[in-house]
Design goal:
It is a single chain. By secondary structure, this protein is an alpha+beta fold. It folds into 2 domains: about 5-165 and about 330-365, Gcn5-related N-acetyltransferase (GNAT) (Aminopeptidase); about 170-310, 3-Layer(aba) Sandwich (Aminopeptidase), CATH 3.40.630.30. The chain has helices at about 15-25, 35-40, 85-90, 120-135, 145-155, 175-180, 185-195, 210-225, 240-250, 290-305, 340-365, and strands at about 5-10, 50-55, 55-60, 65-70, 70-75, 100-105, 115, 140-145, 160-170, 200-205, 250-260, 260-270, 275-285, 310, 325-335. It has an 11-stranded mixed β-sheet with strand order 2-5-6-8-15-9-14-13-12-11-10, with helices on both faces. A 4-stranded antiparallel β-sheet has the order 1-3-4-7. The longest helix is centred in the last third of the chain and has 27 residues, at about 340-365. The chain is globular. It starts with a strand and ends in a 5-residue tail after the last helix.
Length: about 375
């Protein structure tokens, strides 16, 4: 067996795309090389924006056997784990928090394997690479890594943090009406009224959307982000949308609403295997219930018709559980360089996990299902 070599490079352009994607395999689409390279080349995830690419790669001879999508960051934007309170506590205690190392695809709060490895030895080498780039950072944060990986990382000195999202799960539904049949009558009738109110529009689904569609979807995305004030941020530029269309079009799933020949609203999703991931949405005009139709109902319709098992519509939004999305716990793993901060945040996260479990249980009790 050849000696394992850890290489940390400074750009996704320095990582061979085919070898990396072979390592990702059936894992999260947002770990695929085309997405990571586009985030960097489009200027969204670059040092000037507080993202410095540090891909970890592990080689056995000429074969890539391990890797991790690592970045050094000077802020917490675009992560969706919301550790700004931790950073503030560290500042008040005089403990450095930034820069920090994160392991995650940018702007994508989607669960997936983060430490990619062919075997246990490759996994150990990836973690050693993370330790090396984390020597002068306030901590290492492995985001949306899933319960199994989070459990394994506890043996490596990390603690877990929980959040929750809302996911739709296909119980073998034959149609949208079959899905609604499990709802209470008031919830079922509400959704039917919402869908009827936009029935005068034309809706289509495009896999590999056209340039015209991507331009409209980016315009909508900008408009939606602007409504959230300082919390709204347009991470991906219109050229980034175009690049994704060229490099990654087979992954892009667009739900488009038209009034005549004019595109008036839409949602951009990502498709891989038996999962659909909601990403960005928006519209030109404020049309009541259009959001629910393009972001949820049309996507669910499509998932049922195509045998998709899970639809993850995106982070946040408790209105989702009233429309048949189930609260689903997500995980992240953290190791702070300063043991005082690490121990304090580990205790805090354990208490937070208890509160999250109670919230998830309460939401399941008041959902729309009979």
């Amino acid at each position: 067996m050849s000696e394992r070599q850890v290489r940390v490079v400074g750009s996704w352009a320095d990582v061979p795309a085919t070898a990396w994607d072979d390592l990702v395999g059936e894992g999260s689409p947002f770990l695929e090389h085309a997405f990571l390279l586009t985030a960097e080349e489009s200027g969204a995830a670059v040092p000037a924006m507080g993202w410095r690419a540090q891909p970890i790669t592990v080689w056995e001879g000429e074969q890539l056997v391990g890797g991790a999508p690592a970045w050094i960051k000077g802020h917490s934007m675009g992560e969706f784990v919301y550790d700004q309170g931790w950073a503030d506590a560290a500042r008040r205690a005089g403990i450095p928090y930034y820069p920090k190392v994160i392991v995650a695809p940018p702007f994508s709060p989607v669960t997936g394997q983060r430490v990619l490895a062919r075997d246990a030895g490759a996994r150990s080498a990836v973690l050693a690479g993370l330790d090396a780039i984390g020597q002068h950072a306030g901590g290492i944060h492995i985001l949306f890594d899933g319960e199994t990986e989070a459990e394994a990382l506890r043996a490596d000195g990390y603690f877990s943090r929980c959040q929750y999202q809302f996911h739709w799960k296909n119980a073998g539904y034959r149609s949208f009406d079959d899905f609604l049949a499990g709802f209470r009558s008031d919830a079922r009738n509400k959704i039917r009224r919402e869908r009827k109110s936009v029935s005068g529009l034309d809706f289509t689904v495009e896999i590999g959307p056209s340039g015209e569609t991507l331009a409209a979807l980016h315009r909508f995305y900008q408009h939606t982000a602007a409504q959230f004030g300082p919390w709204g941020h347009v991470y991906l530029s219109e050229p980034a949308f175009r690049q994704l269309g060229q490099r990654w079009g087979h992954r892009l799933h667009a739900v488009v609403a038209r009034e005549g020949d004019r595109i008036v609203g839409g949602a951009l999703n990502v498709l891989k295997g038996d999962r659909l991931y909601g990403r960005y949405w928006g519209c030109d005009d404020q049309i009541p219930f259009l959001h629910f139709e393009v972001c949820y109902y049309r996507a669910i319709d499509w998932c049922i018709a195509h045998g998709i098992a899970v639809f993850e519509p995106g982070h946040g939004g408790e209105h989702k559980y009233r429309r048949g999305f189930s609260p689903t716990v997500t995980w992240s793993s953290h190791r702070l360089r300063d043991p005082r901060l690490h121990d304090a945040l580990e205790r805090w996260s354990a208490k937070e996990a208890e509160a999250i479990a109670a919230q998830v249980d309460a939401l399941r009790q008041v959902g729309p299902f009979r």
